[in-house]
Write a structure and sequence with these properties.
159 residues; two-stranded antiparallel sheet; flat
Amino acid sequence: SRPRRRSRFDDHRSSSQANKASSNSLASNEIAEKAMKLSALQASIKAQISNASAALALYPYTGLKKARDFTLRLDDQGRQIDESGKVVRTSVHSVATLKANVDAQTKLNNPYLAHTKKSADDDNEEIDYVAQAKASRPKKAGFNFVKKGTYVKKGEQLR
């Protein structure tokens, strides 16, 4: 049942040479398969490159776009001019940067409130938010002093 131990004096070279020959044929088959896979991969890459070059031929290269010139040119009066010397018209408008002012602008331009119309009096009214806040708070309770003689009267009534 156990395999027989080899002796170092036995002639086992013939079996190892047969094994080497069979392993050489297997290695050559593997090399041939790898070469076939590599050639198929190269062919597919060449096909993809030719397809890409054909697609690029449909849209020819027009060249680089000219960079935009951001040079500030001023005339003798300090106005901004372009490359040809013409005065550039710029519109000056204020930009709301505070949160309160941004909110006020959005309230003015709210399309959902377009159906409500304001009268001319409403635009001129100034709202004092501090006074409104003070009016909405409940009044603090003051001192309630007892009038002179109140407890004297109660004491006499109990006697």
